[in-house]
Amino acid sequence: MRPVVTVTLNAAVDLTVGVDGFRPGAVNRAVSVVSNAGGKGVNVAGCAADWGAAVTATGLIGRGNDGIFAGFFAAKGIADRFVRIAGDTRTNVKIADLCSGETTDLNMPGPAADAEALAEVAATALAAATPGAPVALAGSLPAGLAPDSWARLARTLGAAGARVVVDTSGPALAAVLAAAPGDLPYAVKPNRHELEEWAGRPIADRDGLVEAAAGLVRRGIGLVVVSLGADGALFVRAGAVIAARLPAVRAESTVGAGDAMVAGLVTAIAEDLDPEATARRAVAFAAAKLGRIGPHLPAPDVVRALADAAEITRLAG
Ligand SMILES: Nc1ncnc2c1ncn2[C@@H]1O[C@H](COP(=O)(O)OP(=O)(O)OP(=O)(O)O)[C@@H](O)[C@H]1O
Ligand SMILES: O=P(O)(O)OC[C@@]1(O)O[C@H](CO)[C@@H](O)[C@@H]1O
C-alpha cells in the first residue's frame, strides 16, 4: 500500500455534547461530553491509520492547545508534520441529540493564517507526497488565506505526480473545480448540498446528480464521489458510474462520516483498487465510523465484512 498524506488547514477540537432531546432556545442539560482531535483531514488521517496505512498529516494547528493533536497522532502512529501557528485551534461544538440521532454543528472560524504558513504546509506536503500516492486536502480554509488556496495546493501536488483528493465546500470548492483541465485534482467528494451549491441550483434526483458529476469528469476530474448521507454515495468516472450503499444505521455520531469515506477512497487509491472495490471500500469506511464518536474505525475484518455487504448498482459502464 502506498503511503497517505493528509492536509488540514482549519483543524478543530470537536466537543461532542450528548443531549436527550435537544431543544433550541431552551436550557439543555448535557448527559455526555467527549472531546477529540478533528477537522476533516485529521479525521481522514485517523481512519486511514486505523486501516493500517502509513500516514503523514500536515496542515495548521494552534500552538496553544496542540497537546490533544500530538496525543492523537502518537496514539495512531501518524507522522505529525503540522505547522504550529500562534493561538488556539478552534473548538467546534457538536450537539448530538440522543433521541433523534441528529447532530447540530456549531463550527467556529478558527485562528487566522497567512501566506507564509501556507507555503510551509505546501513544502511539507510536497516533501511527504510520492508519485502515484494519494494526498487528501480536506476542510474549510481559515481566515487570511485566499479562496484558491486548495486549488493552488492541488495543482502543485498534482504536478509532482500525487493523486490529489479534495473535500471542501463553498468558494474553496468552486476555485478547485474552476482550475484548468491539467490542474484539476484526481478526485473530489462533495456531498449533495455542496454539489448543488457549486451548481447554483437544486438537483432533483439521482440522474441530475450523476449528470452534474459527469460534467466534472468530462472536464478532467478522474473520480467524483457524491455522498448522500444514509442513501450512500455515487461514484462517477469516465466509463463507470456506480451507486453504493449500506443499510442505514442509527449513528453514535454522523460527524466525520464523509471524512471516513474520503479515508476509504485514499486507501483504495493507495492500493489501486478497481472502481467497484473502491465504492465498496468507501461506503464501508463511512458506515464503520458511525459506531463511534471521533475518527476511529473498528478492526479491518469488520470493515471488510461491511465492504462485502455493500449494495452496488452499476448505473453505467
Ligand atoms: N445514517 C447512515 N447510515 C449509513 N450510512 C451513512 C449514514 N450517514 C452517512 N452514511 C455514510 O456516510 C457517507 C458520508 O455521509 P454524508 O453524505 O453525510 O457526508 P458529509 O456530508 O461529507 O459528512 P461530514 O461532513 O459530517 O463528514 C454517506 O455517503 C454514507 O455512505
Ligand atoms: O469547518 P469545516 O472545516 O468545514 O468542518 C470542520 C468539521 O465539522 O469537519 C469535521 C467533520 O467532517 C469535524 O471534525 C470538524 O469539526
UniProtKB/TrEMBL annotation:
InterPro entries: 1-PFruKinase, Carboh/pur_kinase_PfkB_CS, PfkB_dom, Ribokinase-like, Tagatose/fructose_Pkinase. Residues 13-300 form the Carbohydrate kinase PfkB domain. Keywords: ATP-binding, Kinase, Nucleotide-binding, Transferase. It catalyses: beta-D-fructose 1-phosphate + ATP = beta-D-fructose 1,6-bisphosphate + ADP + H(+). The keyword Acetylation does not apply. GO terms for biological process: carbohydrate catabolic process; small molecule metabolic process. One of its GO terms (molecular function) is 1-phosphofructokinase activity. GO terms for cellular component: cytosol. SUPFAM superfamilies: Ribokinase-like (SSF53613). Belongs to the carbohydrate kinase PfkB family. NCBIfam families: 1-PFK, pfkB. Catalyzes the ATP-dependent phosphorylation of fructose-l-phosphate to fructose-l,6-bisphosphate. This is Phosphofructokinase.
